[in-house]
Amino acid sequence: MSLRTLSLGQIAIEIPGSTALFHQYDLDFCCGGKHTLEKMAQKRGLDIDQLEKEFQQLTQQEMNEEDWRNAPLPALIAHIIERFHNQHRQQLPDLISMAEKVERVHGAKPACPLGLTKVIQDVYQHLSNHMMKEERVLFPMIEQGFGSHASDPIAVMEFEHNEAGEQLEVIKSLTNNLTPPEGACTTWRALYSGIDRFIKDLMLHIHLKTTCCSHARCAASNIFERPPVLSGGGILRALLIVRADKDQTAVCCCPQRYLSLARHWRGEIYLSFITGLSKNKMCFSSAG
């Protein structure tokens, strides 16, 4: 499919994620949306072959999805980070930028989704924190084979998935279920198209992550059970989470870089402070 003869506005609406490329190359897909990609590339002195190739890659991404449900855990985790974490970090700032423009320009119109920018910003902050915790705590635990000690982090992750679902329902409500009004400008329609793509990506993301965690989850229910110790005195790359409602001291082997991150796990599962330190063990005490 040749994209160079399509208008910028048509590409922005039909290819979610394309607006980020337009911003990158300073191509106006809103006011200049009637011009073809080829004409605007010539006007900007851009390589049309390279430009078209980059847009084509966006159209191929969804078609090239593989069935990752039975993939080895390390490969599945790497795919989740590359395909979804990194993509969400690109998608959401672009959606925020478009939402700000729609609210600023069309705020007086009855159909304008007032408050949408703030909701997307909240989603971005929520998801950024969520992905950071997975990449720095949960995924390393699973990759090292210590999923049996990840029951509570997994529970928090699942709770935060539900919170994300509630935020998406607010977005659908504000946008009339992502239906742009008659006569909506190109940016408005591209915004809703981009949100639709983000939601579909997020649903697949959550599905694969649930698959990953179900493979790694252990039947053990006592989070205070003593973690295994590596032979040779090596530091175990696992994190024992201490419940805040238990007046109990737990001992585990844990690398230094996990300590501050433990505080980010919300609810009743966080580490309060270090009470002692030995060569290969760190002692933690729970807070009331």
Q: Explain this structure to me?
A:
This protein is globular. The chain contains nine helices and three strands. The chain starts with 7 loop residues before the first helix and ends with a strand. With 288 residues, the chain is mainly alpha-helical. The chain has helices at residues 8-14, 18-24, 37-44, 48-63, 73-106, 116-143, 151-174, 186-216, 259-262; strands at residues 249-252, 273-277, 282-285. A three-stranded antiparallel beta sheet has the order 1-3-2, with no helix packed on it. α1 (8-14) packs parallel to α8 and α6 (116-143) runs antiparallel to α7 (151-174).
Mean pLDDT: 74
Task: Point out poorly predicted stretches.
Answer: 218-288
With strands numbered from the N-terminus, the spatial order across the biggest sheet is 1-3-2
Number of helices: 9
Give the termini separation.
62 Å
Label the structural class. Answer: mainly alpha
